[in-house]
UniProtKB/TrEMBL annotation:
Catalytic activity: an N(1)-methylpseudouridine in rRNA + S-adenosyl-L-methionine = N(1)-methyl-N(3)-[(3S)-3-amino-3-carboxypropyl]pseudouridine in rRNA + S-methyl-5'-thioadenosine + H(+)
Gene Ontology biological process terms in this record: enzyme-directed rRNA pseudouridine synthesis
UniProt EC number: 2.5.1.157
Subcellular location per the Swiss-Prot or TrEMBL entry: Cytoplasm
The protein's role, per its UniProt record: Aminocarboxypropyltransferase that catalyzes the aminocarboxypropyl transfer on pseudouridine corresponding to position 914 in M.jannaschii 16S rRNA. It constitutes the last step in biosynthesis of the hypermodified N1-methyl-N3-(3-amino-3-carboxypropyl) pseudouridine (m1acp3-Psi).
InterPro entries per UniProt: RNaseL-inhib-like_metal-bd_dom (IPR007209), Tsr3-like (IPR022968), Tsr3_C (IPR007177)
Organism: Natronosalvus rutilus
UniProt key word rRNA processing: yes
Protein name: 16S rRNA aminocarboxypropyltransferase
Keywords, sorted A to Z: Cytoplasm, Ribosome biogenesis, rRNA processing, S-adenosyl-L-methionine, Transferase
Domain RNase L inhibitor RLI-like possible metal-binding: 3-32
GO cellular component, one term: cytoplasm
Signal peptide bounds: none
């Protein structure tokens, strides 16, 4: 499955996971939204959660937006494709370690690959990052459970269990 990233360039270049993915030939960066191919767009504002059934809609293409969390408003995700939100996961990157839903671009892409059942591809994508394996370890159980869901509603039900645990 190919990983594509619409790159806005507003993050610190030294911490930018999308640029590192490009450097290691693990993702294709696009600086124009029109150049981004159709696929499953990882969008935190999407109305439906990503599930294994979305792999069919991906057409072997996953798309992420690389931008600062401060500019990650809904309008920034106006790419064509099937928009899906990632369920509850915890960041392992040094900037947002332990914070739910604050994933880097590589964490988001790897999570989607893992939910689609591509565990080796997810690990390969994270390999250039010291903390990459930590992301998979921290989220091992939820990623396994999300990957076993039949559809988006089941993913949301599993997510609700984790969110209930966070509140207690």
């Amino acid at each position: 499955m190919e990983c594509h990233v619409y790159y806005e360039g507003d993050d610190d270049p030294k911490k930018c996971t999308a640029r590192r993915l490009e450097r290691f030939d693990r993702a294709i960066l696009h600086r124009s939204m029109r150049a981004v191919p159709y696929g499953v767009v990882l969008n935190p504002h999407a109305e439906r959660a990503l599930s294994p059934t979305d792999a069919d809609d991906a057409l072997d293409t996953l798309v992420a937006l690389d931008c600062s969390w401060e500019s990650a408003e809904q309008a920034a995700f106006s790419m064509s494709g099937v928009h899906r939100a990632l369920p509850f996961l915890v960041a392992a990157n040094p900037v947002n370690y332990g914070r739910p839903f604050r994933l880097t671009t590589v964490e988001a892409l790897a999570a989607a690959l893992r939910i689609f059942g591509h565990a080796e591809a997810a690990a390969d994508l994270l390999e250039p990052f010291r903390w990459g394996e930590t992301f998979l370890t921290l989220n091992e159980e939820p990623l396994r459970r999300y990957a076993g869901c039949a559809d988006s509603s089941e993913v949301v039900a599993v997510q609700d269990e984790y969110l209930a645990d966070e509140d207690t």
